[in-house]
């Protein structure tokens, strides 16, 4: 169990996985960030450009360690309880930019994807909304120990999908996205608070023998 469970508001990193300035996935990420902030959680909204890094190269890693963009992503993952990725689908799969970032950051120890909760969403002009890409994205994340939320959200016909105010043009889809985000946060909250409650219960019993006791709540 992660040792960074805390009694404050949940902290959620949100980012769109496309580099282009007009990215609809960046817009979807911004909308999800608003929905998360509405619940009182703390949001760290990032862009993929902030995680700029070269292609993974084992020789470069041996010589120089991780590139700065990978370290930025590592730091921001370490500071969150959960993360949300809004990713386009390229050729039925994960965009290379995103997979490359996951590969670099997976080299860090302790490995920062482990035990984090993740919600995956996508936007695409196609009729499937990029949903196949999200199924592919589950594989590296679940391999790394991320708790990927079972439900996902994919916005089809994304170029016409947003209203002027940044919400989804279709009220039914807006409602479904809101409910998905809220259900995801409830699960994250239950997990984070459970560890805090366990710790408080042991301490209430007066058993203050220190590390051994606290560890029982963190194993
Ligand atoms: C795509 N696109 C795409 N869309 C899709 O639904 N299924 C696919 O397999 C692909 N394949 C694909 C490959 C490549 C190389 C590109 C550049 C694009 C379209 C893609 O989903 C669309 O460009 C993104 O949804 C746009 O996302 P942003 O940039 O608006 O976030």
Automatic annotation (TrEMBL):
It comes from Streptantibioticus rubrisoli. InterPro entries: Flavoprotein-like_sf, FMN_Rdtase-like_dom, NAD(P)H-dep_reductase. SUPFAM superfamilies: Flavoproteins (SSF52218). This is NAD(P)H-dependent oxidoreductase. Residues 11-156 form the NADPH-dependent FMN reductase-like domain. It holds the Pfam family FMN_red. The lineage of its organism: Bacteria, Bacillati, Actinomycetota, Actinomycetes, Kitasatosporales. It comes from the Bacteria. Transmembrane segments: none annotated.
């Amino acid at each position: 169990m992660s040792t960074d469970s805390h009694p404050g508001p949940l902290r959620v990193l949100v980012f769109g996985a496309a580099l282009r300035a007009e990215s609809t996935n960046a817009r979807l990420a911004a909308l999800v960030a608003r929905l998360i902030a509405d619940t009182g959680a703390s949001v760290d909204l990032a862009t993929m450009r902030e995680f700029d890094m070269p292609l993974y190269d084992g020789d470069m890693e041996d010589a120089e360690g991780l590139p700065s963009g990978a370290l930025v992503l590592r730091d921001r993952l370490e500071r969150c309880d959960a993360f949300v990725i809004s990713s386009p689908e390229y050729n039925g799969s994960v965009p290379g930019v995103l997979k490359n970032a996951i590969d670099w950051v997976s080299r860090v120890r302790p490995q920062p994807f482990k035990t984090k909760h993740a919600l995956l969403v996508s936007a695409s002009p196609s009729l499937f909304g990029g949903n196949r890409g999200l199924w592919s994205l589950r594989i590296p994340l679940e391999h790394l120990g991320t708790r990927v939320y079972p439900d996902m959200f994919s916005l089809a016909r994304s170029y016409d999908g947003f209203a002027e105010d940044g919400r989804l043009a279709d009220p039914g889809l807006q409602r479904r996205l809101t409910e998905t985000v809220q259900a995801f946060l409830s699960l994250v909250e239950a997990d984070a608070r459970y560890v805090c409650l366990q710790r408080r219960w042991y301490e209430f019993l007066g058993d203050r023998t220190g590390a051994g006791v606290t560890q029982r709540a963190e194993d």
